[in-house]
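Annotators were shown the component list below and the corresponding predicted structure, then asked to write short factual statements about the assembly.
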Amino acid sequence: MLFVIGLGLGDVTDITVKGLELVRSCNIIYLESYTSILPCGIEEMEKFYGKAIVIADREFIEQRADEMLSQAKHLNVAFLVVGDPFGATTHTDLIMRAKDKEVNVKIVHNSSIMSAVGCCGLQLYHFGETVSIPFWSETWKPDSFYDKIKRNRQNGLHTLCLLDIKVKEPTIESLTKKTLEYLPPKFMSVTDAADQLLSIIRDKVESGEADLAFNENTLFVGLARVGHDSQKIRACSLIKMKECDLGSPLHSLVLPAENLHPIEKEYLQQFSENQL
Amino acid sequence: MLFVIGLGLGDVTDITVKGLELVRSCNIIYLESYTSILPCGIEEMEKFYGKAIVIADREFIEQRADEMLSQAKHLNVAFLVVGDPFGATTHTDLIMRAKDKEVNVKIVHNSSIMSAVGCCGLQLYHFGETVSIPFWSETWKPDSFYDKIKRNRQNGLHTLCLLDIKVKEPTIESLTKKTLEYLPPKFMSVTDAADQLLSIIRDKVESGEADLAFNENTLFVGLARVGHDSQKIRACSLIKMKECDLGSPLHSLVLPAENLHPIEKEYLQQFSENQL
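Structure shown to annotators:
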């Protein structure tokens, strides 16, 4: 049987009691390690579970997932995922492949940024489509998420912006070599995201586009390490967000709707230096 | 200190390890009991936690929350919530009132239907605004959620419909009496919801409205008891959903986008009797 177990967002104790019991009963434990940040060091997790952990990075999922599914035919195999098991398309795909191979699958849900973002006080049912903001390069600066943000804003909805993560990205030079070499992991901060958003807005202004979704004075909410003890939230203008150091990853950014419910406004106030 | 602890969606073991440790360390434990269904009987919960539980129903939250907050000034008080602490506006309001009174608050996140709905295979970042479908009465048949569903559909997004819960609703006759009497609890099923949606569509057709958001043949996804062992998911047309018995509550309904991603379609297929 394959147990796909969400670890939640905080530290090692954010696994559910059910999840922990299952991990401890499994023969082999894989830990998905490339769509998020691990709650703590592997050693600490191994100690807490009382079990050895096999790291499953992108290469593993792409090349050796079948091996894992074969094991799950006659053994109890745990596949641990930061957040909730259905947070990333890769995991949905894996679960489907398991079912194709007639491997029984059990899911253990946990907290995900998609719901935990409520911690800033903005109501979950007032969020529109979630967008992802990718790292720009010199030559690749996609901004298709802008239209989604704009649509949410026009419809009076908040937008959760998930910020890019680059883990185990091969260097361009090594792609043609036998052994891949990797870039250091990179996590987009609210500063990086604000910088890219400001750049988009400048371009829109220059090209004479009216009716912008936001400008440099628009209120944004930056969130860092949601669910951790060191969680930080800051509500400020986009231009200030660019200078805002929320510390280590993961970060997320929210563009609230223009008109806030009084409870939302009052709750957000605690994260702002100015009167909202 | 006030600990607001999410219990997740399944049984008593869906609390996180962190949450359980905190509950066991608290002096007083309240359990919010009117925005969702409890994971099991109170006795089972008390046995699992090794602690007595005080039920906090709507009257309690409205009339005696200040008492709880005063206790939390010098005692460790747990407030347990099914799902995630930020799932309902009431809880956000309570946390704000605690902060106003300078009571320290710690949140323990958990799974919520807003993210666990991903279990049907529809990608979370393709969901638009969530809507709530209320029970209709003879004289009160609101359908403002239809416009939101339509907007999501037009924008190529899925819609999660949360279905109404009526717990501890006073009878109209008892409202003028000294002692309130209560109606039996009522939970909207996917059948009830489909019935109301079909009725809305019939009205729209009669009034000559073109470009409907859906019709009786449109694919819907019904979900029951998400996160429980007895979880059931069914993908079928709206007209079939009206005859679909998914068993005991809670139920949710999803209207998928018209164009599905191949992985979404393949995943949904397992819940359908027909070729999607």
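Statements collected:
1. Chain A is about 30% helix and 20% strand.
2. The radius of gyration of chain A is 21 Å.
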